[in-house]
Amino acid sequence: MLNTFMKRHHLRLWRSPAKTTGGREIWLGAATHDTGLDVRPGVVSHAIDPGLDAERAKVGADLLVAGCVAAERLVTRPNPLSEGLTATGAAWRTDGRLLVIELKSP
After folding, report:
1. Backbone angles phi, psi at 98, to 5 degrees
2. Fewest CB within 10 angstroms: 42, 50, 76, 80, which?
3. DSSP string, 50-90
4. What is the pLDDT of residues 70-81, one digit of tens each?
5. What's the rounded Cα separation, in Å, for the pair 10 and 3?
């Protein structure tokens, strides 16, 4: 599938002020699969695939195939959210786990 403004894989990354015990930077990310346009009274936004875990898996698989991954694992958080609504009221769901990836050093 070709990525367009309406249908794309959308990854956002933020540098954390925290560092690993070895002094490496920690980055946090969030990913969604935009599937179209969501128009609700007073709000226009991208519609997203409600199954967030599939996009988490895609990010991990893409980095693995690219040869960037030294190690990865899924981490279970205490009391994670498992479902909710977007700003436009569309439902989303997840198992609430975080994908932790250690990237290979350049």
Report:
1. -105, 140
2. 42
3. SBHHHHHHHHHHHHHHTT-EEEEEEEPPSS---EEE-TTS-
4. 999 999 999 999
5. 10
